[in-house]
Amino acid sequence: MSRPSQRDPLPYLVLPALALAALAVMSFPAWLTLTVAGIAMGCMLFLAASGLTLIFGLMDVLNFAHGGFVTLGAFIAVSVVVTWAPAIGGVALVALAVLAAAAAGALLGLVFERGLIRRVAGAPLRQILITMGGAIILQQALIVLWGAEPLPLPRPENLRGSVIFAGAALERYRLAVIGLGVVVFAALALTLKRTRLGLLVRAAVENREMVESLGFHVDRLFRLVFAAGTALAALGGVVWALHAEMVTADLGADITILLFITVIIGGLGSVGGCFLAALLVGLADNYVGFLAPKLALGTDILLMLIVLLWRPRGLLPVAAP
Amino acid sequence: MMRLLSNDRPGHWLLALLLVGLLLGLLAAPFLFPGTKALAVAARIAIFIVLAASYDILLGYTGIVSFAQTTFFGLGAYGAAIPLALGGGGWAVVAGGAAAGIGVSLVLALVMALLSLRVRAIFFSMITLAIARFAQVLAAEWRGLTGGEDGLTFTVPRLISPAFRLFPAPLLGLPISGPVIAYYLILAVSLAAFLLMLRMVNSPFGRVLQAIRENPFRAEALGYRTILHRALASVLAAGFAALAGAMMALQLRYTNPDTTLSFSLMIDILLMVVIGGMGTLYGAALGAALLVLAQYYLEPLLAGLARLTGGVPVLPALFDPGRWLLWLGVIFVLVVYFFPAGIAGTLRARGRAA
Question: Which stretch is the leader sequence (chain B) (predicted)?
Answer without folding.
Answer: none
